[in-house]
Structures
1.
Amino acid sequence: MNQKSSKAHEWLRNLQANGYRATNTRRAVVETLANSQHALSPLEIYEICRSQHKRMGLVTVYRTVEKLEELGLVQRVHQPSGCQAFISAAEGHQHLLICQSCGKVTFFNGENEAMESLMKKVSLQSGYQIESHWLQLFGQCANCRDQT
Amino acid sequence: MNQKSSKAHEWLRNLQANGYRATNTRRAVVETLANSQHALSPLEIYEICRSQHKRMGLVTVYRTVEKLEELGLVQRVHQPSGCQAFISAAEGHQHLLICQSCGKVTFFNGENEAMESLMKKVSLQSGYQIESHWLQLFGQCANCRDQT
DNA sequence: TTTTATGCAAAGTATTTGCACGGGA
DNA sequence: TCCCGTGCAAATACTTTGCATAAAA
């Protein structure tokens, strides 16, 4: 069993532990998202899954993604081109790095002194009590850089 | 003339300089957005403007906001609750700090060594060439903290 | 006068909901 | 068996487009 499918299994177990059932269609959505290095929209997930489950409905994708998000297993990705896509949730204090050419998503560790001190500084200057932050980087991945 | 309305005038001048006309309805949208400390959705802008221009259509708001965004005068704000709202564009390397209670938006300067070194580090580790970053903080503003 | 902007209505997308049937546990 | 999950269709929300009229320059 490779690392990819173990993530899918873990998500399915998590769903079941929360009273949700492991159905075939749900399994397809979970595997698609768990194995993807790209953020996928409900429609994209639907099209990928439909190659295996002809009868699958787009609604099922929406409902499954909703549950995965609720359990913190996937997260919505915000991009200039739109905010409908989802990807595996970052673990801990990680953030996203997105390739503008191929869409590949990489996680990086954002829990560091630099961020901490910036937030402390902003907190003092603004009077806000800072509770959370969104940090996302955009660029070109190594592959796409080479192809130029 | 206060600072608020001068921003609205500046935007109108900018629109005219780019071949767009300064109409009454457009003026209303511009003033609403230029004077707001909160991110507003097209529908919210529409409802505010309609108190003065009964005949105004929601479409006009969409079309005006589109032009303001195109000229870099306003920017879209992404939030957990949705991504339809707009606010004055940040000037230079500034980022948003949003109050989770009242929605007030404050800008802070994000152009600093901390961010630079973080991006350099991530670039080395990931192999990505980083082109832009998106940072946003969420918290409680001074007013909302006091009211607890 | 000339050209852009407007409102209305209609058309497109994206997403959610109601419901009877089907399939997991 | 029991109850959740499913697909379908319809409803809702958000945004864009076509067009005849109104208004800015």
Note: The domain at 94-146 of chain B is CATH 3.30.1490.190 (Dna Ligase; domain 1).
2.
Amino acid sequence: MGFLFNNAGFFLYRHCTCLKFCMLSKEDIFKEYLDSKKLKFTVERQKILERVFANYKHFEADELLIDLRQNKLKISKATIYRTLSLLVKCGLLREVIFGERHTHYEPVFGQDHHDHLVCNNCGKIIEFVNHRIERLQDEVCKKNDFEPQSHRLQIQGLCAVCRIKEFEAVQIKD
Amino acid sequence: MGFLFNNAGFFLYRHCTCLKFCMLSKEDIFKEYLDSKKLKFTVERQKILERVFANYKHFEADELLIDLRQNKLKISKATIYRTLSLLVKCGLLREVIFGERHTHYEPVFGQDHHDHLVCNNCGKIIEFVNHRIERLQDEVCKKNDFEPQSHRLQIQGLCAVCRIKEFEAVQIKD
DNA sequence: ATGGGTGCAAATGCTTTGCAAGTAC
DNA sequence: GTACTTGCAAAGCATTTGCACCCAT
């Protein structure tokens, strides 16, 4: 199991992200990463990992804190931030920014790389997957001699419900 | 000139962003917007607009402050933030987030909607335009009954120079 | 034993806000 | 004249950090 983060496995890891997701559990991936950096797999780190993947959805640091409290786990904010940063570094979490000033995270489940439609009015988030966009992105990278590591695509606008609401509001005004 | 931000022009404005860029100067667009909100076109707002469009590139609030100082304009940070927010609202500026905790802005020149490659190592930013990606985005929006207003696409990774550097570093290690 | 981990509280750094005085229309 | 604006300083807020004590290996 030691191949993922040692020198020999470096490029393998970097260029074939899905490999580790097929072969190892989240916990193993995290342990592997910690090992490679001579860091320890503590109870706090384990519990945070567990809660992060217990819910299949976006969250922010504060929400994770509340979730931990509700599960009777007392972990300080500092540790939460420190651990989230590690989980991002080892690829188990992705940072997503929805326009607010605090960071949102989403668990990475390996296969489905998706992007987001964010409603400017009600805040609803619609996820979508589009492989053709991803392919075009790779093309752009090649053209610019750039090695992609991650990306964010986020389209802001109005969802169906809010568009109708706004349309009605304008009609009444007129 | 009053048609852009009054009720009747609302949809026109919303659905045909480039129209105003073809017909009006930046200052007119800004004045128009301020008028529509019963806000005033002050010297501070005028000067900030001027400096923002004097340089064709990304900047952050602090850099604008320095630029203003260098041009012997003494405008407080509070006013800068307040004005930047107005410029974003009326579509003359776009917020771009490059992964740091502070907001970056870029002036909008109407025609060329571009996206960014951001080097994780040296921070270099490469702009690119890809109409096929944009078209696919519109498709996604239609499929999800979503009305797009703006979007951000940002690919993070390693630029050519840094990729070579990192490759060499690994070779030496081995 | 020891190098890393944790919680706490204080620090940071960008951004926002309350307020009194000033200014555009 | 009356809102709206500005600058200043203080407040906010998410995140980071210093430090003393703790714990896994």
Note: The radius of gyration of chain B is 19 Å.
3.
Amino acid sequence: MAAIAESPRDRLTEAAQEIFAERGYAAASVRDICKRAAVNVAAVNYYFGDKERLYVEAVKAAHSCISDEPPMPEWSPGTPPWDRLRDFIRVMVTRMVRETNPHATHLIMREMAQPTAACIEVVRDYIRPSAEVLRGILKELCPQCDDEESYLLGFSIMGQVLIYKQSRPVIRLLMGQEAFDALEVERIARHIYEFSRGGIERRQAGGRA
Amino acid sequence: MAAIAESPRDRLTEAAQEIFAERGYAAASVRDICKRAAVNVAAVNYYFGDKERLYVEAVKAAHSCISDEPPMPEWSPGTPPWDRLRDFIRVMVTRMVRETNPHATHLIMREMAQPTAACIEVVRDYIRPSAEVLRGILKELCPQCDDEESYLLGFSIMGQVLIYKQSRPVIRLLMGQEAFDALEVERIARHIYEFSRGGIERRQAGGRA
Amino acid sequence: MAAIAESPRDRLTEAAQEIFAERGYAAASVRDICKRAAVNVAAVNYYFGDKERLYVEAVKAAHSCISDEPPMPEWSPGTPPWDRLRDFIRVMVTRMVRETNPHATHLIMREMAQPTAACIEVVRDYIRPSAEVLRGILKELCPQCDDEESYLLGFSIMGQVLIYKQSRPVIRLLMGQEAFDALEVERIARHIYEFSRGGIERRQAGGRA
Amino acid sequence: MAAIAESPRDRLTEAAQEIFAERGYAAASVRDICKRAAVNVAAVNYYFGDKERLYVEAVKAAHSCISDEPPMPEWSPGTPPWDRLRDFIRVMVTRMVRETNPHATHLIMREMAQPTAACIEVVRDYIRPSAEVLRGILKELCPQCDDEESYLLGFSIMGQVLIYKQSRPVIRLLMGQEAFDALEVERIARHIYEFSRGGIERRQAGGRA
DNA sequence: AATGAATGAGCCTTCATTCAT
DNA sequence: GATGAATGAAGGCTCATTCAT
């Protein structure tokens, strides 16, 4: 998106996303954010009152940006749960890995690892809805799962997805730059789907072989 | 574990681990670290030359501390790969979740998500060795895997483990405090093992059903 | 007295009196004054051009307010000078001590101790007229006084009066809250009159005993 | 006193006295104080922690400077009370009017008119001792005075003295520059003594003539 | 006539760092 | 070998003010 001439307020939120994502809350300076947004230093105080409230706005903007694109498909009532799981994983991997708005994802990851005041809102507005979608699918695949089990299944799936965002630098170092660059979204998504399908089916089959 | 009278240098490294882990690099102040270590402000400069070099030392100390405890078992030559995988996962989950030296793990996680100068060394000395152990096991379980596939399998396993450290606050918010507290290391480790075994076996069985 | 809906300009002057009196010129903020006056921030600039010119207007308004109430009596031609002196002192003490419009007196006192651009006008319009009244009385009581002497007498009288305004916090601390509260305007005025009468009569009697 | 090269801390206290006296607390800037003291901006934080605590120190230094010079004479046991009153007044007028350390007196006057956290200490350490000396003299001159009366007498005397400090700008405007410059400390002190003696003696003689 | 958006200067404070001892 | 005094740079924030409307 990032048009060149939005309103000062929007430019500020966007610049804040970038700089907070790059440097973290403490290391990001209001002055630098304003410079990148091409507004006066006092604008932060004027629009948001505070560095902290600017941060919260930036995080909110980031998660709204992430949640929108790509959107979760609206499945027709009869869509088989395995298909929905495959779609879900593909959307999530795309959101994490794709190089559009890398600042937004980065900011959210920071917030998840190092929660601040904004975390509660992010979880409530962004993460929980997705989590509920996933749990809905899982409940259908494993009807007899209790709450804890379905959470563990969900974390196993999301863990596989998130590692590509949260530990990306490490992954690049481990695989080497070339192999890392060769990784495609579709490849990752298909792998996670197949792997997870195996895990779920094994659970349904009754555990140890 | 935090003896009262170590050498000033060690006290400094330890205090640095704690404060860097709690607040991050930028928000941590040299003065506070020195205060907690009960040394003079100039000591950081004297012993390490720099805030940044103190940070690197703290990260190194953290990963040396974390790699030791609990140690990876030394398997006898004939140990079946599934058993070694189960052990590997249990050790990793324990290292991530258990609340001994939480500062050390926290610091390492920060470094993985937000690589600084210390990252290369952390990967080389701490992460790659573990990664090689895991890939060794996987190569044995899936002899015909190419490099990319074995990496993807490894990431699927480690992703499931790491999410409990890197997204812990979110997990707690999602499950609720009580359910979160009820989660036990053994439970998590067994789940990840079974889930991953299903994933690996499905791959070996030839993919889509 | 503080009607709810005057003209914006008047509301501004009034709010300025209060806030300048409470905090002093530098510590008073144009924003706060505007907030209390319920007008836009730009109103100060619009109506007065400047924070400083608003201050001058506030001081003028304060002294015009203070000079009126209570008014100096209009003595009939034959009123004995001692009676006029007693009245004069009572009016002055009342103006200083009484708790009506405390902002106005406070502002004037500030201006006397810490002269700004407004001081010359305050002296010309408010202080000198009163001073002339007093000197007229004193000239009558001590006809052979030269200028310096009559000034010294005037300062001795006004000094006794002003201390109750300018050093009020100290007086309260010295006497204690209770004794301070028990002090009545009439009591103070009578004391100053009697004390001053003694001083003046002694001078007329020829000084040292 | 004001040597050219004292310790940074002392230079700071002295510069603070001057600038706080000239501009008041809010309008005085830490930067300007440091510039005048020829120290770094951070020195205020280092030595005093705070602008406010620097202010308190400056006020304390001011009153200690004032109280020392000129000192109150140490009267021999038999000194007649009138002589002691004359000395007391002369010392007080000298402290107020003399042009040594004008900053110190100015600062104290500000504090008396606009009390801050420092006021209580100033009253306790500086003002009350002097007030007790004066009340001791007055009790001897008017043995039958109750507390309130002796306070009123004391305020009448101190009011005459303080007006030359607190309202100096107004006095200069009223008398004109020349007459103001011609006023000598001795002249003022003698006048206040004679005037006050008349006031006290009249009271002892039984009030109205 | 009157305003809300936006500004640049300056505020106090804290920071990592160094120097003389 | 180790320290306390002192520094310069930069931090977030608030201020009086202006400009387009």
Note: Chain D has a mean pLDDT of 90.
4.
Amino acid sequence: MGKMTGYEKEHELPQKVRQLYAAVLELVAEGVDVNAIKVSDITQKAGIGKGTAYDYFDTKEDIIICALIYAVSGMINRIKVEISQYESFKMQVEQLFTAVEKELVERECFMRFVHMMTDSSFYATTLQQRAALDVHKECDAMVLLRQMVEEAQRRGEVTTSLPLDYIVFSLMSKLLLYLAVCNERQEREDKAHQLKPYILKGLFAEFCR
Amino acid sequence: MGKMTGYEKEHELPQKVRQLYAAVLELVAEGVDVNAIKVSDITQKAGIGKGTAYDYFDTKEDIIICALIYAVSGMINRIKVEISQYESFKMQVEQLFTAVEKELVERECFMRFVHMMTDSSFYATTLQQRAALDVHKECDAMVLLRQMVEEAQRRGEVTTSLPLDYIVFSLMSKLLLYLAVCNERQEREDKAHQLKPYILKGLFAEFCR
Amino acid sequence: MGKMTGYEKEHELPQKVRQLYAAVLELVAEGVDVNAIKVSDITQKAGIGKGTAYDYFDTKEDIIICALIYAVSGMINRIKVEISQYESFKMQVEQLFTAVEKELVERECFMRFVHMMTDSSFYATTLQQRAALDVHKECDAMVLLRQMVEEAQRRGEVTTSLPLDYIVFSLMSKLLLYLAVCNERQEREDKAHQLKPYILKGLFAEFCR
Amino acid sequence: MGKMTGYEKEHELPQKVRQLYAAVLELVAEGVDVNAIKVSDITQKAGIGKGTAYDYFDTKEDIIICALIYAVSGMINRIKVEISQYESFKMQVEQLFTAVEKELVERECFMRFVHMMTDSSFYATTLQQRAALDVHKECDAMVLLRQMVEEAQRRGEVTTSLPLDYIVFSLMSKLLLYLAVCNERQEREDKAHQLKPYILKGLFAEFCR
DNA sequence: GATGAATGAGGGTTCATTCAT
DNA sequence: AATGAATGAACCCTCATTCAT
């Protein structure tokens, strides 16, 4: 049987695969170390037999990687849709910050994913290779941000006197910064919300006309 | 025997421990997945027997964590010294960027360490707990940055109209962003150097009077 | 439902069972290790569902054993018929050698079967037990040879001054020797044909008047 | 560490390897199906830890194959020595038959080994490949027999009017036949001894002047 | 009846840790 | 003190067998 790749459309996903993905993402959201996840953890949480997982995936690593790709590409696509409802760059950026902080599971997965994109763990390396091959670039948040900025530049909302790369990277770094703060334990949850307006203000002051 | 903690002074380190740390850091610098490092990899590279490692550490994880703490606290202390030679905030920040990009091994370890501070892997969790207990805060780059900014504010070089947290986080995020770009494969190495002046200019424009 | 035993008459065999047997024997003829044959290999080659195989057999081992019994008893019966067309012992023996070398699949299965009769693998042990119970002795090539020799002795063609057992065993050993040589890779295929006249001559010289 | 090959000299064998070999051979002698032997069976019988086996061998199959090569090459070498004490071909052949029937364990291993040389099981295939590469031909009983016959021909004891191959194969087939009969359950043990003189007489009548 | 998706017991292999030398 | 051979718990993966459809 053809094994999963992580890029299947939502409706193409067999039920069992959906359960496997959900199990992995729950574990990740619970803060379990990805490297410590056991196949039996996943299948038990998914409520299916261990062997079944291997009908859809070749290795444990595949299960986890596909679950992460699934989560992040889904998240990015959802953010794309949400952002497209706004016309101004500023509103889009605000929406972006709101979107990523929204749900714990997604936030955790996104963080994990971003880490992996700049990490040298096994999962990181594999994901980077996958991303490089990924024609749809569905998983690349950078691509999303780049498009957003380019269009805003075309509309004249964002300065063109700074390199596109710099603007995109700045946006990304502030976004991650925000996520990192959000993710810290409770006490700082407030701090995150206090910082948000400053982060946005800083961004707009630097890049918007 | 008392086991190592990672906070020993340089001169307190037994020779064997030094060799163990060096081995771990070399492996990390080579891009080996921390989770994939085996005790035999470490001791072989260190040129000592496996049993000896257990005279100084209780578990494999301890060896790795202490090596990382050692590397990062050393790095931060060295940066402290380097920075203290400059009097202006701008020069200090420039020096900071130069320092972290300087050496591959350090950069890699620093990245790994930072990842771990915002990660939920086993090593991450342990390091975070250790950092929370760490009275000297020797390992906390944030503390260093905070001190730097506070003093600059006292000297009137940095604005006090923005929250200290925000300034520190911004500085940190730009620094990490820069490191991440530096760490990408060859092609981008140039991109990193092209971005640097913009990053610094952006920082100074936002925070310096 | 009553499960198969391997001794069903050709016309009693359900179509699916025929397909299963054919699949097993093809695999064996392809040189696949009997111990490595998977149920899915068999049913896939047979073009039927896995569950169906278990309607006719209790275990995987049963499928394989019955297929082998089927192949060998069929082969022996066919050889019996072919031999009965000849009246002289010498002609019968020549026919015997021709018959066993005839078809690759049969030769392979026969070899496998003979191995199993003098082996201690699981299949061997089971087959030996079965053969001991086999009232018809349909599977026992030795019985065929014994009858052949006994009748030839009665007709005065074969010496009675040597023990029957010895003559039968000698015949068997030469036959197997010949098969073994036939089965070696290509180069020796010729060698087999060169040896054949010597093998027969030796046999006849020793046992025929 | 360098792994075992099965061709180590007796005195080169680490103690643990010796124990592993002994365990495998005991199991084989007990009539356990080679394909059913578990690593834990071997190490338990050997009285060592499971992991230790993997210090000396890469896979379970390696352990078993090396044990068989060890047993057979040892046996053949011992037979070589025993045979070399006799000067006449007839005495040598008699000694050969005595030697192979001598010890249960050896007989069983030799049978297993011979099976494997004309079989298509995994072990068989691997052993055949090894034997083809084996420069010493230490494991090849055929080589031993061939030398024996050639020398006897040179001494004028064995006819040169028959092809060498035929003589060697005949000798081999009678030898194996004899072993097979010896190996059958109790009742036939006697039969074997009754057959022996006829087998030898037949051989000598056919090949000796 | 026929199927093949699902199961989970079982076994090969790895590697952190120990301890006799 | 230092070693590394030995251990065995742990875990991934396979595949015979079942059973709902």
Note: Residues 38-40, 50-51, 54, 59-60 of chain C lie near DNA strand F (CB under 10 Å from a C1').
